[in-house]
Design a protein that fits this description.
NE0471 N-terminal domain-like, 12% helix
């Protein structure tokens, strides 16, 4: 597989199947803002989430980052979104994983985290009052 070009702006539109998931967990638009180092998601219920890359990387749900199989399933820690994203951290690629998650590929070589939509929405730093809504 060749090197993936850096994303300057990626937008994924979803046509969700009715009744598949609760509207709270159905994304209708996903946008990667590389310059701002943020992932923005608009959900079917109208909520707008924003996730700085640094917080997403620190909240990676993979078994390695969670500390082993016994630690899996913990909720996202919205406090991790307060810290600035390191300049060198980039989201190199983002792919839908079925109809339930996003697979993220980071510039530090990490790519085993599958971020379920429920995990993202339940850990939204905007909804938790940690970050202001996007403009």
């Amino acid at each position: 597989m060749g090197k993936i070009k850096e994303i300057s702006l990626l937008s994924i539109k979803f046509n969700s199947r009715k009744g598949l998931l609760m509207s709270r967990y159905i994304p209708t638009d996903i946008t990667v803002l590389s310059k701002e180092k943020e992932l923005h998601i608009i959900w079917k219920d109208g909520h707008k989430s924003r996730f700085p890359f640094g917080g997403l990387r620190k909240n990676c749900p993979c078994v390695f980052c969670q500390g082993g199989h016994g630690e899996m399933g913990k909720p996202m820690d919205p406090i991790q979104f307060i810290a600035d994203t390191p300049e060198r951290l980039k989201l190199n690629n983002l792919k839908p994983s079925g109809n339930y998650a996003l697979h993220m590929f980071w510039s530090d070589g990490h790519s085993t985290g599958i971020y379920r939509y429920q995990y993202l929405r339940d850990g939204c730093p905007v909804e938790a009052g940690i970050l202001p809504p996007s403009k």
